[in-house]
Automatic annotation (TrEMBL):
<keyword id="KW-0325">Glycoprotein</keyword>
<dbReference type="GO" id="GO:0016787">
    <property type="term" value="F:hydrolase activity"/>
</dbReference>
<dbReference type="InterPro" id="IPR011042">
    <property type="entry name" value="6-blade_b-propeller_TolB-like"/>
</dbReference>
<protein>
    <recommendedName>
        <fullName>Strictosidine synthase conserved region domain-containing protein</fullName>
    </recommendedName>
</protein>
<keyword id="KW-0926">Vacuole</keyword>
<dbReference type="GO" id="GO:0005773">
    <property type="term" value="C:vacuole"/>
</dbReference>
<feature type="region of interest" description="Disordered">
    <location>
        <begin position="46"/>
        <end position="71"/>
    </location>
</feature>
<feature type="domain" description="Strictosidine synthase conserved region">
    <location>
        <begin position="197"/>
        <end position="255"/>
    </location>
</feature>
<dbReference type="GO" id="GO:0012505">
    <property type="term" value="C:endomembrane system"/>
</dbReference>
<comment type="similarity">
    <text>Belongs to the strictosidine synthase family.</text>
</comment>
<dbReference type="Pfam" id="PF03088">
    <property type="entry name" value="Str_synth"/>
</dbReference>
<dbReference type="InterPro" id="IPR018119">
    <property type="entry name" value="Strictosidine_synth_cons-reg"/>
</dbReference>
Length: 350
């Protein structure tokens, strides 16, 4: 089965994976209706903190089913004061072609952010002076002369030009891995340029991509609408966001429970990407709240911080017109918000 939709690629040390269907609606109800089109999410394992064997693998999560075992309930945790994201700094994208910075990543030197945008490119922000520049693009972007489609909406060109949705740097090599909704899993070197296609098929199941051999191995089938994915701080398991059920799932990759999965925590909204928070837990971007009303207060949950054992630690709230796909916290405490529909990257000061 051709890989139809990619979403988020995760490398464990840097700040999302094969496949999910790109959303063109703000309604998460439409997400659930599109679940049959979803495919895989991937995590690249490999940094100085993991073994050479781990450094050679891309761990992935994909589509259809429910987790089977429920872990013991975590002990209650103190809940930190909510973060107010009503006013955010904006890194405006360079032109009308570049909207929807779905994924946000920083390289091993801290440069960036790098973002994946709707016209098929990966953009890099070089600071106030340099601004945004094109960093990478798929082979089809050049072949189909996609930079000439300035008058066409992205929905009309993305099947030809690509729609990159997940970005993750491999720290040791400096390579950037890209999960594209149409092209599959791709890679580009630290200097950018044209991307190389690594895998285009997922078979509707989670997979492991071995970098040395380019082999794809199925891990597990039967997940429901997997979206974002992250690896735990101790490298023993993956945390997978299940958008339709509003849950996080834990998939064990090492230890006595290896190759099994279990529920991790319930969420108050529809999750998109999951990112490590640098403190042993995770930031989960929420596209909308589970029971959100179209009227009333113009505020809703944007993201939630989840602890290492599934406890809810902190919320980020902001305007309803902001529906983030990714929340990336940096060492300085700033949180970068990606989006599938806005023309800027949001920066929240915590």
């Amino acid at each position: 089965m051709l890989l139809q939709r990619c979403v988020s690629l995760e490398l464990p040390v840097q700040d999302r994976s094969l496949s999910r269907r790109h959303r063109h609606s703000q309604e998460c109800a439409n997400h659930a209706a599109a679940a049959s089109m979803e495919a895989t999410s991937a995590t690249v394992l490999g940094t100085g903190r993991s073994s050479k064997h781990e450094a050679d693998h891309v761990e992935a999560a994909s589509a259809r089913g429910l987790a089977r075992r429920r872990p013991a309930a975590p002990a209650p945790a103190a809940v930190a004061k909510a973060i107010d994201a009503s006013t955010t700094q904006r890194l405006e994208l360079p032109d009308t072609l570049a909207i929807g910075p779905e994924s946000v990543a920083f390289d091993g030197h801290g440069a960036g952010p790098y973002v994946s945008v709707s016209d098929g490119r990966i953009l890099k922000y070089g600071g106030e002076g340099a601004g945004w520049t094109t960093f990478a693009y798929s082979p089809s972007y050049t072949k189909n002369n996609c930079d000439a489609f300035s008058d066409l909406p992205p929905i009309a060109t993305e099947s030809s030009c690509g729609r990159p949705l997940g970005l993750r740097f491999h720290v040791e090599s400096g390579n950037l891995y890209i999960a594209d909704a149409y092209m599959g899993l791709m890679r580009v070197g630290p200097n950018g340029g044209e991307e190389t296609v690594l895998a285009t098929e997922a078979g509707g199941a989670p997979l492991r991509f071995t970098i040395r051999t380019n082999q794809v191995t199925v891990l597990q089938s039967g997940l429901t609408y997997p979206n974002g994915i992250a690896i735990s701080a101790d490298r023993t398991h993956l945390i997978v966001a299940l958008t339709g059920p509003c849950k996080l799932m834990r998939y064990w990759i090492r230890g006595p429970n290896a190759n099994t999965s279990e529920p991790f925590t319930d969420l108050p909204g529809y999750p998109d990407n999951v990112r490590p928070d640098g403190k042993g837990g995770y930031w989960v971007a929420l596209h909308r709240e589970k029971y959100e009303l179209p009227f009333g207060l113009d505020r809703h949950l944007l993201a939630i911080r989840i602890g290492a054992e599934g406890e809810k630690l902190q919320e980020t709230k902001g305007h309803k017109n902001v529906r983030p796909t990714k929340a990336v916290e940096r060492e300085d405490g700033k949180i970068y918000l990606g989006s599938v529909e806005l023309s800027y990257v949001g920066i929240v000061n915590t």
